[in-house]
């Protein structure tokens, strides 16, 4: 079990790549937008400026030479594609969230996405009733990789960031979570450990929630990796 200075009191999830397998849709939407204006998007662009980043950052980084009207068209294209695409949940995430909720654990979503998409995803996963706090891109001036989104989530939950367990799948997301002071677990890629993730898992199929009345909730991820979480109820 991880020996944490401050007991974990909340579990926070990024959305894209953590709740839903949406990375291919997102990459495709931005590549389509680029092609409309004779541009190409590199793999480094995807890592640095797309995954884990709010749309306005991506547009400023990759489409700053376009007119304001054309930048608005790019944004509208991205929103239209992402709001209508079909997504599959990341394996095991729905089961983990419902188990944490049943055990009385506080759960939140911290994402660079927007409210319409968040509401659609939580409805699709049937987890609306499980979520205590949501921080979206319009809630902060500085999004990921800055710590502001996770600092705001902690503030809204009235706890210190060190008491939050976070799941992130991008470099910018992990950097945001770690710089805020949270205990961050990487999803999908082992290289996220280099960004500060405490460990990385491919998905949530190995996650198990064990709770007993009067004791902490233990969340295990295989290979002896166990995190104790305080229940709120």
From TrEMBL:
Keywords: Metal-binding
Coiled coil: none
InterPro entries assigned: HAD-like_sf, HAD-like_SPP, HAD-SF_hydro_IA, HAD_2, HAD_sf, PGP-like_dom2
SUPFAM superfamilies on file: HAD-like (SSF56784)
UniProt name for this protein: HAD family phosphatase
Keyword Metal-binding in record: yes
Record's keyword annotation contains Cytoplasm: no
Organism domain of life: Bacteria
Database matches in Pfam families: HAD_2
PANTHER family: FRUCTOSE-1-PHOSPHATE PHOSPHATASE, GLYCEROL-1-PHOSPHATE PHOSPHOHYDROLASE 1-RELATED
